[in-house]
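task queued by scheduler; priority normal; single chain, no ligands, no partner chains; default sampling; output format set to structure tokens
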Amino acid sequence: MASFTRLAAFAALLISTISNVGAVGTSGQGTTTRYWDCCKPSCAWTRPGLTAPVKTCDIQDQPLADGVIAQSGCTGGTSFMCSSQSPWAVNENLAYGFAAVTSSNPSCCTCYKLTFTGENAIKGKTMIVQATNTGDDVSGAQFDIAMPGGGFGRFDACTREWKATPAVWGAQYGGSNTNQCSAFPAALQSGCGFRWDWMKGVSNPTVDYEQVTCPSVLVAKSGCSVSDYVPPSNPNPATTVVQASTSTSATSTEAQTPTSTIEASQPTTDNATESYPAAGDEVDEVDSIATKSGADTGVNDEVAAAIDDSTATGGSEETTTTTTGDAVVEEEQQEGEGDDNTCEA
């Protein structure tokens, strides 16, 4: 009987482990890459569990009234990614944006707080991203951040929409290794400059991530949220934008692509409920968080809220694997970076 019990326990553990491979958990360690293919995001199609699909735009970058049914621009259709879904800096320590996640367990319109790790210039910075796209070559704990100039990947609607050229937009994977943002269309220049300013040119940094409630400003831009979404108690977070540079003098400090991805366990709880204070509350909120953590965080109230009270782990266990650090090395991105749109017909 004891042998049978041990065998049953082992089988249950094996099944649990297999079911979590390729899944984005409520928290864990992971990797980031970048892309911008201009295609209709895969979360822009009708999916169960969403209040509405992600907004899309026409070839003139204007909102589409029939974006849900319009075919993707990467297959000759009329639906493209909107430039408004570019990343932006709230301040030097906090940024918002959008990302693609694995298609093996898509979490459309779920938000994640990414805290950058590794020995690099953005270590400790925080970015909150909403999953608006999926990719069959994006691994379970990989977040492919949408940023203009980040590389097309397997699909390319940018050549058709913006007349993109390799001379300006760079390589298929990873984009340009120098700042070419001043040569981009005006609507994309700020999002392109995000990589060189707020991210300091660091490429593919590793992260600690956790699932959080989406800030209202992200939901407003994408038009999408999960069906049980409850906005944060303050719907108007501070949004002081740090202007991105479009100068051409910067040179990329590329980081090595991690050799392995850390998988996290299957989500066991709904999104955490968080509060994003309004502008003007920064000093008191930061002081409060610094007192709780025993150190001066050096961030504004939104970072404090995201760091202090993310409760979405649900007590789930994590299966961890060591990832390669973010060495500052010039290197093109590998497959899976920028290749996120399922390009559904």
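post-processing summary
- Strands lie at 27-35, 88-89, 94-102, 111-116, 126-135, 142-146, 206-212.
- The radius of gyration is 20 Å.
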